[in-house]
Amino acid sequence: MRELVTYIENHPRRRGRRLFLSLQTNATLLNEERAAWLAGAGIQVGISLDGGAQAQTRGRPMVNGKPSHGALMRGIELLQKHAVSFGALVVLNRHNIGDPEGLAQFLLEHRIHGFRLNPVAYLGDARRNWSEVGLEQADVLAFFRTLMRAIIDNRWLLLEDNLRTMCNFLTSKQRRTRCNRAECGAGDSFQAVAANGDIYPCGRATQSPGLKLGNVSDRSLESLSAPARTNPHIMALRSRRPADFESCQVCSYRQLCHAGCSAQAFERYGTVRHKTPECAFYKTLYPELMHLITFDRQAFEHMEATSYFEREGARFDHDFLLAHAVPAGVA
């Protein structure tokens, strides 16, 4: 990693461009030296966790089957000791779906205020263990609703990234992530490289062998984006639009979700030209968010204070007041 960071920082094509370096880790192998290096290199860190000791033990055991909770806690303490900026990535699964408030309390207790909830996807080990870890969309929606209400009612300083992204789009029309675009650019403008050098369109696709684009050890490789130019899946992805799918054509929210993630569609349905398996999540949560930030003053004020609107809150607050102004002469 040190060699890679040095290579990136000194690359002749950098030409003064600002770098954003980040690392996703389960934090179990961190030590004083590594934490100090992360701090010195200015690398932002995301730690993978599933909640408290019970959820962590069931959802993320060590390779040898032993609990990982103790090692995770040591890693968190080291990051905080060395003032490394980090957030959390929580994978929702059957082991932690039942206690949204417990997860929130765990995060607050350990001073983790920024996090992202990723419902378990039909990828990797989950394909083999879906009956043990898989969730229905109704379960995911119930978790998000309960958590969101608890954050608002208790005024917890918690910023969940999916909700932040959705609120940001509603108030500014800015899409913070490529995953909210019909043509996300996977394979063309960005790629993921696995540990063995295999090239994939994106990080989520690395568990889908059918989306492999090549390998960096191939001497004939011109660039990371070269294999995508003739790959049939990437060619299909480039022209992927919500209007292509019958159910999306009549959906009022198609321009908000843009048919969702093509990698997940490929893994579940065998083609990128299919709507996301998370369709119900977006169609339900977007209108609920619209109603919440339009008619619930307490919700709006707390979400504005905790950065869910990405600097658009002041303008939106003005619109909020206008929308709720009492006409002259009305008691």
Number of strand elements? 8
What structural class results from the helix and strand content? alpha/beta
Distance between the termini: 66 Å
Strand arrangement in the largest pleated sheet? 1-2-3-4-5
Q: What coarse outline follows from CA principal-axis ratios? A: globular
Low-confidence stretches: 313-318, 320-331
Number of helices: 16
**Averaged pLDDT, please?**
87
Question: Major sheet: size, sense and barrel closure?
Answer: 5 strands, parallel
Instruction: Please compute the radius of gyration using only Cα atoms.
Output: 21 Å
Order of helices and strands: HEHEHHEHEHHHEHEEEHHHHHHH
Description:
The structure is a single chain. By secondary structure, the chain is of the alpha/beta class. Helix 14 (279-295) crosses helix 15 (297-305). It has helices spanning 2-9, 32-41, 53-59, 69-81, 100-109, 125-128, 130-133, 137-154, 161-172, 232-238, 246-249, 254-257, 262-269, 279-295, 297-305, 313-323, and strands spanning 22-25, 44-49, 86-92, 114-119, 159-160, 192-193, 198-200, 214-215. Helix 5 links the parallel strand 3 and strand 4. 44% of the residues lie in helices and 10% in strands. A 5-stranded parallel sheet has the order 1-2-3-4-5. It contains 16 helices and 8 strands.
List keywords for this structure.
alpha/beta, 331 residues, 16 helices, five-stranded parallel sheet, disordered C terminus, 8 strands, three-stranded antiparallel sheet
What's the layout of helices and strands?
Layout: H1 2-9, E1 22-25, H2 32-41, E2 44-49, H3 53-59, H4 69-81, E3 86-92, H5 100-109, E4 114-119, H6 125-128, H7 130-133, H8 137-154, E5 159-160, H9 161-172, E6 192-193, E7 198-200, E8 214-215, H10 232-238, H11 246-249, H12 254-257, H13 262-269, H14 279-295, H15 297-305, H16 313-323
Parallel strand pairs: 1-2, 2-3, 3-4, 4-5
Antiparallel strand pairs: 6-7, 7-8
Helix pairs in contact: 8-14, 14-15
